Amino acid sequence: MSETIGIKPDPAMEVIRVDGVDYEVTAQGNFIVPRQPGEYLLGRFPHSFEQVFLELSSTDPADEETDVPVDTDIDFIFAEKIEEGTDMESKITVACSTGSVEFTAAIDPVGEKKLTITPDENLAYSTLYTVTVKEGAVVSQAEGLTTDGDLVISFTTEAET
Known about the structure:
Blueprint: E1 4-7, E2 15-18, E3 21-27, E4 32-36, E5 39-43, E6 47-51, E7 56-60, E8 65-68, E9 74-78, E10 82-84, E11 92-96, E12 99-100, E13 103-107, E14 114-119, E15 128-133, E16 138-140, E17 151-157
Parallel strand pairs: 8-17
Antiparallel strand pairs: 1-5, 2-3, 3-6, 4-5, 7-9, 9-14, 10-16, 11-12, 11-15, 13-14, 15-17
């Protein structure tokens, strides 16, 4: 089966946006046919599409970490610079079996790759917490990319001594 797609390539022809979603285009061969001014047909050569997302590098505490201090901040570190998405704080939750935790969230202004969630009060001892950063809470600065779905980590705080 042969399929033909129409796109408006940028000069580098690396990334296109379709209905608000970025796709990476890899074309093998040199088969571009003008269809109308500013519109082109690409066809009859192997091509691939890959949706591009904002990549999470690490978290602190790590997912499923135990003995986390009750006075901890929660960091999500990304592979590229980030900025606030629409309604960032409303798309983040910190929860345990007894309910939600009040917090503030901010992007580190130094490296701009770290989202820091700071609970308003110390967390409870020996408690399992789940932190969710919903898709769209943060976006990449360069291309406005979002994460591939929600980011969820869980950790357990230290025992009281």
